[in-house]
């Protein structure tokens, strides 16, 4: 698969619509492509926000109108077109901009319906509100007109990108392929204030694949860098382990 083809897979990757071979290839590509890392994070945040949209019941008379119209439509036999298999592209599906938007809306909507149908309403509401706040805060920084980014390789071999908006005084960390922390541990983020590490929050649980997007807690201020350490659950007041990654903030 060429690099140009890999660039087209961000939407399918965000929706977990790739097969194992494609996903492995795209994971390797993400490790060296900050642009795709940012795009996957934006699409993932968009899908999360779409999934939290409230639904409204259709008017009772709508079903009757639809069923009447269906009965009035003349059915025609399907049209078939022979396809030369030798001319088929290597990858069967391609997402255009409109198709991608539709897939995001449908997939996110189905996920939202499943949550509300199978979980206690109050717990689902709280989780939905928290997810909405996280997605909105990440999207706000990524979409800021003055957003600047800086990338670096972590000790695990995965790639991290920090995006900073000076006007918002906020930062977002994007981590591609970051492995899950050891059992009973969490990843904690830190701002580097001239050699003094200031906690920027604990990362939510990770599945160890895909792209993690987290807004750092607190203002950027005069910080010159960002660090990631492995800490006990709930985090620490100061780093208790060597950092697995240090990133300079973009100028």
UniProtKB/TrEMBL annotation:
Database matches in PANTHER family: ANTI-SIGMA-K FACTOR RSKA (PTHR37461:SF1)
Annotated Anti-sigma-K factor RskA N-terminal domain residues: 6-42
Domain Anti-sigma K factor RskA C-terminal: 100-244
Residue intervals passing through the bilayer: 95-116
Coiled-coil residues: none
GO biological process: regulation of translation
Record's GO cellular component terms: plasma membrane
Membrane topology note: Single-pass membrane protein
One Pfam family named in its UniProt record: RskA_C
UniProt protein name: Regulator of SigK
Keywords in alphabetical order: Cell membrane, Membrane, Transcription, Transcription regulation, Transmembrane, Transmembrane helix
Subcellular location: Cell membrane; Membrane
Top-level taxon of origin: Bacteria
Region feature Disordered, mapped onto this chain: 223-251
